[in-house]
Amino acid sequence: MISNILQMLAVLLVFVVVLVLTYYATKWIAKSGAVQSQSANIKVIETFKIAPNKYIQIIRLGSKYYSIGVTKESITFLAPLEEEQLDFTAKSTQQQIPFKDMLSKFAKAKKSEDSDVNNEK
């Protein structure tokens, strides 16, 4: 009995260690830029999703700016852009909500939904 509990705790400990290592490895890879090579002459300035797997991107090639359409199958040139047409000061309009807050909000909604169902019975 005790050996089963110790074995389960050991498996749980190994699982937690693997999760922590995965988290830090992912952070390290993201910071190192190993996933996406850095280039001084090519840069994606902004991406806007218009449909699943369909995006409009503003890119910089050298000192010139272009808009392109990107889908799963192809990349389409849309138009050249002048630097004066672009607003580099704009912040992201999407607010970053911590996962913990979203989870607690979902849990409260689920709890109230469950209590409503129980009250109807």
Helix and strand sequence: HEEEEH
Largest sheet: 4 strands, antiparallel
Write down the overall geometry. extended
Helix content: 40-55%
CA-CA gap between termini: 42 Å
What proportion of the residues form beta strands (DSSP E)?
25-35%
The total count of helices amounts to 2
Lateral strand order in the biggest sheet: 1-2-3-4
Write down the Rg: 24 Å
Spans of at least 5 consecutive residues with low confidence? none
Task: Count all strands and give the number.
Answer: 4
Helix/strand structural class: alpha+beta
Overall pLDDT, averaged? 85
Write up this protein:
It is a single chain. With 121 residues, this protein is an alpha+beta fold. Helices cover 44% and strands 27% of the residues. A 4-stranded antiparallel beta sheet has the order 1-2-3-4, with no helix packed on it. The radius of gyration is 24 Å and the shape is extended. It starts with a helix and ends with a helix.
Write the layout of secondary structure elements.
Blueprint: H1 2-32, E1 42-51, E2 54-61, E3 64-71, E4 75-81, H2 99-120
Antiparallel strand pairs: 1-2, 2-3, 3-4
Short overview:
By secondary structure, the chain is α+β, with helices and mostly antiparallel strands. It is 44% helix and 27% strand.
Which features would summarize this protein structure in a list?
121 residues; alpha+beta; four-stranded antiparallel sheet
